[in-house]
Amino acid sequence: MVGFLEDARIVLIRRGESVSDVFPEWTKSAFNANGDYVPFDLNMPSTIRKRERIEDFLLDPPLTNIGSHLSRQLGLSMIHEVPTVIYTSPQLASIQTGRKLLEGIPVGVGWNIEPGLASYFPVGTECPKFDVKLKKDTVLKIPYINAILGKETLEEFQRRIAHVISKLDFPLGESTIVVAEACVIDAIIQSFIRNGKALTQRQMASLEKRIPCLSMMHFDVKDNGKWRMSAASLPGLLSECDPIRNIPDVNFLVRPIFDY
């Protein structure tokens, strides 16, 4: 609940730091000859769930211990702006980020995994296969997402994200969090803030630097569906890490003028 808020507030959060962010080829050293997981760094989770192939961990990596800790701390910081619900993509790092946010938030909050918020995978690239069991209705279904990943054009991906966001429930007077990858956050901003204007390829190449892990962007949505940037600011992680690391380049994302 957000005091004195008339519009619906949407907070976009990029998922926390993943093991692949820190150790790009970590699977080469993290599994023994028997295929058992053996972490080689204190920033790696002590255990991970079994998967059919070791390669699947690179396609859909877990959070680091630091990513988990800071996600929970971010939840703790939301005491003055408690969300009504959290939506996450079906990717493991986003799900774990949502779970840790919930651990930190001081009151009960709804949580929905929305398969339609899955990232963009260029045509022909190897993609994860999601197997999360969902108890609630979703805009798109897991089998459908598994079938289209790696077959969508970028424009089709952007239309998918716009469709999913337009179908989600954002109650007036309440705050809702969406946790996803940087490309999903940009697709949302493109559709609802930039009036469909896409980034250039050079601009897309810098996207993950523009939207750091656990960075947040606030938008207010009127009852007519019109989005606008919000002046609201949730408490940052000033006591936990360098604040520069989780501040998004909002001006660039909203008005991408320069090709850099």
TrEMBL record:
One of its GO terms (molecular function) is phosphatase activity. This is Amidase domain-containing protein. InterPro entries: His_Pase_superF_clade-1, His_PPase_superfam, Phosphatase_SH3-domain. PANTHER family: UBIQUITIN-ASSOCIATED AND SH3 DOMAIN-CONTAINING BA-RELATED. It comes from the Eukaryota.
